[in-house]
Amino acid sequence: MTSLNELLQDMRELETELSHFELKFGVKSADFYTAMERGDLEEFDGLNEYRMEFIEWLALHKTWASLNEKYQQLITRQPVALQIKANLEPSHA
């Protein structure tokens, strides 16, 4: 089972990758995703230089959203206070 720490680390790495696209194109990933879903970006379909970037951006955002959903599910099962306490305890490795 994925721990909350591992999940947060994976999400942070994806956020770093997403920020590259957000800075390049000037919009947040959630807004880009919404525009893609609505078909608002069809004018870019013929521009090959953006096609692969948009596909990658879309895939990264979908992966992040999936991990965020998993995080929400896990955090509802494990109270936040318990998670924080677990992270403050010294490891016995």
Describe the protein's architecture and organization.
The protein has one domain. It is elongated and about 55 Å long. Helix 1 (4-25) runs antiparallel to helix 3 (48-77). Helices cover 76% and strands 0% of the residues. The chain is mainly alpha-helical. It contains four helices and no strands. The longest helix has 30 residues, at 48-77. The model has no long low-confidence stretch (mean pLDDT 88). The chain has helices at residues 4-25, 29-38, 48-77, 80-88.
Q: What's the short version?
A:
With 93 residues, this protein is mainly α. It is built from 4 helices and no strands.
Set down the secondary structure blueprint.
Blueprint: H1 4-25, H2 29-38, H3 48-77, H4 80-88
Q: Summarize the biggest pleated sheet.
A: none
Please indicate the count of domains.
1
- State which percent range the strand residues make up: under 5%
H-E order: HHHH
- Gyration radius, rounded: 17 Å
Number of helical stretches of at least 4 residues: 4
Assign the structural class, choosing from mainly alpha, mainly beta, alpha/beta, alpha+beta, or little secondary structure: mainly alpha
Oligomer: single chain
Helix content: over 70%
What key phrases describe this protein's structure?
4 helices, 0% strand
